[in-house]
Write a structure and sequence with these properties.
Blueprint: E1 9-10, E2 15-16, E3 24-26, E4 34-41, H1 48-67, E5 78-85, H2 90-102, E6 108-111, H3 115-128, E7 132-134, E8 145-147, H4 152-169, E9 177-180, H5 186-201, E10 205-209, H6 220-229, E11 233-237, H7 240-253, E12 259-263, H8 265-268, H9 271-276, H10 278-284, E13 289-293, H11 302-313, H12 322-340, H13 346-354, E14 387-391, E15 397-401
Parallel strand pairs: 4-5, 4-6, 6-7, 7-8, 9-10, 9-11, 11-12, 12-13
Antiparallel strand pairs: 1-2, 3-5, 13-14, 14-15
Helix pairs in contact: 1-12, 2-3, 4-5, 6-7, 7-10
């Protein structure tokens, strides 16, 4: 099974699903009570890389939960997924969510729901009052939305800041100046604002900005600007698509004079090698580049290693990156919420989200959270931290930060 930006496989079942706008239903395999969960994913369009990798892992985990007895506190209720593709269009996210709630009568919502979709979805959730779990958004503007994404401030910005400062202070990298280069949309802009303030406070001079137009077909102009400024470090939040274009431009200009570090997909997604090709990937990804991620196959986390093995050996997924792990984690979060909720009423589900607790060391904690997984008052993760990796020529990754998960020290390649 090969998962690409255009097609995706369905876990161990191996069925191919076309990324169509109309919903389709994954029905519980056993008779009895069911809990309907609506899944709004970006299975097509510019943001499809996240969901195409993640959805097969999510469906596998839900099948596993159902097979192992379903939601035991609800009489063994089986989870039924009602799925829709928003085609990476925020307005469609809102429309599909409204239909799933009002017509399909789902009791919870989940899905990719990146930041732009989160903003469009907020009025619908405030009106219809259905608890929702976003897999990737960096914010949660509705009181009915919780997210596994990295918070803009204490997640993305803090982790990138801490890594850059660690390169300077612990790794003795000569870092005095920075250019902020980020995907120019809601999440990228918000992270850039917080990150700029943090870097300045740590005595790193911001000498320029190279925002990446998310509609552009080429990022050469941004790379030319970076090359002209010659910063010690280039840093920011970059989507997978913008990352591919940025790395292609860096290769074409043969520019290696700065350290590039950022998150998440544009620097660390496994799809980069496939889309860039071996020659470009080896030339730029392994040279003065570090990527922020919540997952890496070599991270020293026992529960992460076990879910990797299960998704590979049992689910038979060929593509297991941070998208797959993030979605597997979402399934476990929803399972705990449903188990702990005193009923399936909206208020009860909200309260269960607020009390969620998957501590560090729990076998169901798959992402790198030294403080465990709980939601804060803002419905974002209390522990918003992530890891940084460096790429190897064989397309493997090494975790280099933080030390608790690190396999190797970060190395420069000039």
């Amino acid at each position: 099974m090969t998962i690409t930006r255009r097609t995706f496989g369905l876990g161990a079942a191996g069925a191919l699903i076309a990324p169509v706008a109309a919903p389709f239903v994954r029905r519980a395999s056993a008779a009895g009570p069911t809990i309907r969960i609506g899944v709004v994913n970006s299975m097509s369009g510019s943001l499809a890389a996240y969901a195409q990798e993640g959805q097969p892992a999510f469906e596998y985990m839900i099948r596993k939960i159902n097979a192992e007895g379903g939601i035991r506190s609800k009489g063994g209720a089986q989870i039924e997924l009602v799925m829709a593709d928003d085609t990476s269009q925020p307005a469609r996210t809102a429309a599909e969510a409204r239909r799933l709630i009002t017509e399909e009568k789902v009791q919870l919502l989940t899905g990719t729901i990146l930041s732009a979709q989160m903003l469009a979805l907020t009025p619908v959730l405030d009106e219809l009052k259905v608890p929702t779990l976003s897999v990737w958004a960096g914010g949660a503007h509705s009181s009915y939305m919780f997210t596994l994404g990295y918070p803009y401030d204490r997640g993305y910005a803090q982790t990138m800041h801490d890594f850059v400062v660690s390169l300077r202070d612990d790794g003795k990298f000569p870092i005095k100046t920075a250019v902020m280069s980020y995907s120019n949309y809601e999440a990228g802009q918000q992270v850039n604002r917080f990150l700029t303030e943090k870097l300045k406070a740590s005595n790193i001079e911001i000498i320029g900005e190279a925002a990446l137009d998310i509609r552009a077909q080429d990022q050469t102009a941004a790379m030319v600007r970076i090359r002209s400024l010659k910063p010690d470090v280039v840093v920011g939040l970059v989507t997978p698509r913008d990352g591919i274009l940025l790395h292609q431009a860096r290769y074409n200009l043969n520019y290696h004079g700065s350290i590039f570090c950022g998150g998440t997909g544009g620097y660390s997604d496994l799809s980069l090698w496939k889309d860039l090709g071996q020659e470009i990937g080896k030339a730029v990804l392994t040279r003065n580049l570090f990527g922020m991620t919540g997952f890496s196959a070599g991270a020293k986390i026992e529960s992460m290693q076990k879910i990797i093995a299960e998704l590979r050996d049992v689910a038979k997924l060929e593509r297991i990156g941070q998208g797959a792990i993030q979605y597997a984690q979402a399934a476990r979060v929803l399972q705990q919420v449903l188990e702990n909720a005193v009923s399936l009423d909206s208020d009860a589900l909200l309260n269960a989200f607020k009390k969620l607790d998957i501590p560090y060391g729990d076998p169901n904690l798959y992402i790198a959270k030294p403080q465990g997984l709980q939601f804060a008052e803002d419905r974002l993760l209390k522990d918003g931290s992530a890891m940084f990796i460096q790429w190897l020529p064989d397309q493997d990754q090494q975790v280099v930060f933080p030390k608790i998960f690190a396999q190797a020290a970060p190395r420069p390649k000039s």
